[in-house]
Amino acid sequence: MLEILAHRFAAVVEEMAENIRRTSFSIFVKQTADFGTCLVTPDGEVFAAPRRISGNLMIGVPAKAVIESLAPYAPGDIGLSNDPDATGGLVTHLPDLWAWQPLFIDGEIIAYALSFVHSSDIGGSVPSSIDWGHTDMHQEGLLIPPVRMLTAGERNQAVFDLVARNSRVPSQNLGDLEAQVAGLRTAQRRLSEIAESYGKSAVEDAIADLIDTASFKASALLDTLTPGSYEFVDYVEGIERLEADGSRVTEVPPTRLALRLTVGEGRAHLDFDGTSPQVLEAINLHTGGEPGHYMLAFALVNWFYSQDQQIPYNSGLVRPLTANLPAGSILNPRPGAPCGVRAAVFFRIMDCVVGCLAQASDRAMAPGAGLVAIASIAHVDLASGERKVSVGQPLTGGSGGRPGQPGISGTSYMGGWLRNVPNEVLESDVPVLVEEYKYRRGSGGSGSQPGGDGLVVQIRSLEDDVTFVVRGLERLFYQPFGVAGGGPGAPGIATLNPGTPGERNLGRVGSITLKAGDVLRVETPGGGGLGSGAGGFDFGEARESYDRRFPQPLQNQLVHAVLGQVPSARQAAVYRALYLRIDRAAGDGVVTQAVLDEALEAAGLDAARVSGEMPVADPAPDKAHPPGETRGEAAKVEAPGRTGTAPSIGGTA
């Protein structure tokens, strides 16, 4: 009976997803399948999610806050929100429009259906609403607190009008919202049929048993790892500029992600102590402090499923997980922190988990390319005068070498659910010509199981004033690392007008407006290679050089000084200013304890209060523990000239 009902629940969420895909209006939702569906308990735990269609990111979504936000409910009510702060980390950036509906059986709510679609545009300063250089969430578009989109089955037309009016593509947004409504209504219809066949109590018992079973099996899989604590550090890249004399100038510091994974007794604790404070750019990840948050647990959820493909696919998989998410860090930022490109941090967390698992398991794997970059293309249709926003290819790279198998080219587990857009569809929707779309041969890392190759996408603009907004380009400098004797994957590169006198390296691109004949070429990274030896990690020369220049214990001291002694509202600016001051003071040499102490003392911080050693993790905290905060003289350090939006095109990463 449990197996039968598990398949019936899975069929419900798959049908919800298929209905959204078939009835949606935007190319982004219809073609790339950047949307999701799930069923959750009245307490907000996911008990069914799709595996074959749509985003596989639903395990661990924190639904309780939005469920409570509009209670009590009547049959036919549907809620809507895209507000990260008001939804407790359910929403992680504004283009994700989340909707939810209570599912009634015999007059009682026994579950909720949830879905999201990624809107092609929700307003804001740039087409597609996402830009790495945003410094304020309000630059990113319309914010919708939890509101009833439908009340007792009747449309709240003002909500639909509000969403349409605040978008460059109103008809696409309205069509995608209607598709979500259709998907949610599917859930009510199908769950009613299941309850009619098997009885309400059988459905409720199966929901509880499936979550318990997933939790039990996940704990058993964690026990196959060698007990202990494993540490790994990785970075979201910053921006550096080379002067005419060859000297290096840091404009935006790298963002540090530090993980200590402790496993044992059927549990896993993810301690992110030492992770960077929230930053000024739009890469902050709003988790609501939830320890099993879907963007923290994704790599472990994938690992569970890869070990046991019969394991129930629900939020029981994250029950054995606890986490320390320091308040004010990039993983638990203050309300209002810009977040459009939060996926860059999400992918680094996955790589950190892969790095820890490589130490804890005798079946290691290498990381993938470390990015899924999306290029939105905006132009004015010359025939109709209508503003259009479409989406180019989701740009991922190769996966890492796997136990017994090489990596897969052109895709990776971190974004493998996204489908590509057929070139013919793209060319019919926007005035571009796709000149190349192929594998980037030889870009995967070497090893007994080499990493998969990245992609090459070259697009020519056929009209003037065609704007590309490229978000999420990463691993342009720090390569996907090799594992156990494997070599690192090749870094990515974005080039304007390659092979011409005007050729230019665009770095992470951001936003760029092309004229007729301009060519944009993006080459994505290859996956890391997996060796057969007992070697550690091969990060490539750029990363290893950086770690020699700024040793890990000193980086850790800087993070602790800011999170522990600076008022929370100023941490992002003070961290930026301190880092740049230390970077300038070190010059072409290395950062020493004396350089760090001098910078901290100049900022009014007490260098004696921080230690270069990682503190021992709390073995099982339920939530993040905010560090102590003092209001000293930290305000003496100002962010250097950082106002408004960052330049749309950065230098070399």
TrEMBL record:
Residues 613-653 are annotated as: Disordered. Residues 2-532 form the Hydantoinase B/oxoprolinase domain. InterPro entries: Hydantoinase_B (IPR003692), Oxoprolinase-like (IPR045079). Residues 620-636 have a biased composition (Basic and acidic residues). It comes from the Bacteria. This is Hydantoinase B/oxoprolinase family protein.
